[in-house]
Amino acid sequence: MTLKGPSLEFALPEELEAHEPPEARGLSRDGVRLMVSYRQGDRLAHARFRDLPEFLREGDVLVVNTSGTLPAALPAFREDGSELRLHLSTRLPGGVWTVELRRLEDGATKPYGGGQAGETLRLPGGASVTLLARHRMEGAGKAGSRLWVASFSFPEPYAPDPLPYLLEHGKPIRYGYVGQEWPLEFYQTVYATEMGSAEMPSAGRAFTPEVLTRLLSQGVLVVPLLLHTGVASLESHEPPYEEFYRVPPVTAQAVSQAKAEGRRVVAVGTTVVRALETVADPLGRVHPGEGWTRLLVTPERGVRAVDGILTGWHEPKATHLMMLEAIAGRGHLEAAYQAALEQRYLWHEFGDLHLILP
């Protein structure tokens, strides 16, 4: 493994990619492995996720993202009959969406650079999608053209709400390292309340009612927010696109009070960090709010609202690693990832987890 440059660079062996949910490997949701890394002294501990309550304490605030996962992948057909995969990313104001076109290759999908503004593609069940314009994002460079802004036409009885249509015709977004399709429930957290994410906020997948009950019984405060995730980009690692968030007053107050009293705030996933940091002022006070965030958390910016994070293991050069470096520091992150590779932790949404604490 090499660790160099502005972000971590390392070779991820294929055998360390989680190819199926833990349930298919004979484990319960909370049976995945958990590395706990302490920034102070770079101390590492190895456990199972069901042991999480042993590493948190009374007064800690655990912030979760209650966004549910959409079945956001659809087959799409061009006028010449060729088949693509359409990944819905984000529902924008005005009822349009950002979407990604992908081509089929060897049972997986790859980025597809084609398509034309004004082109209409046929979808299952009599629906269609029209590509309006390339989606542009400041700072994304050429990668900004990966997504399209598109409008949908859904037949009755689906229109105008796309959710019933997606539940009938869509499937969860799946990348090549996951060898087969899995039902939508495998992509949901136990505390999801509002569907809207293109891909699962996977840091929270291992939670079970039993783990949550143990945390609450020992005085850990669990509070919600919402951030609907867009599509990831495993190929180009560009900055994340704008995403809708909602931080309710109860969560803003709990986090701000914990910060003022010196108690720990632990985010469940990079999505939670992005939402909290969007509404945190320079003094670390978190304010309620909702809207669209384009925030990119980097080591140069730092973090204001969170002290720790529960997260998955991220791909080499992924922009999420910059966020983790902002929380943990470069040296600590290198030590943790080196240990994860040596101890054969599993990557991706069905893999193992990493808890970073002060």
UniProtKB/TrEMBL annotation:
GO terms for molecular function: S-adenosylmethionine:tRNA ribosyltransferase-isomerase activity. It comes from the Bacteria. The keyword Membrane does not apply. The keyword Membrane does not apply. Its EC number is 2.4.99.17. It is an enzyme of class 2 (transferase). Keywords: Cytoplasm, Glycosyltransferase, Isomerase, Queuosine biosynthesis, S-adenosyl-L-methionine, Transferase. One of its GO terms (biological process) is tRNA queuosine(34) biosynthetic process. This is S-adenosylmethionine:tRNA ribosyltransferase-isomerase. The gene is queA_1.
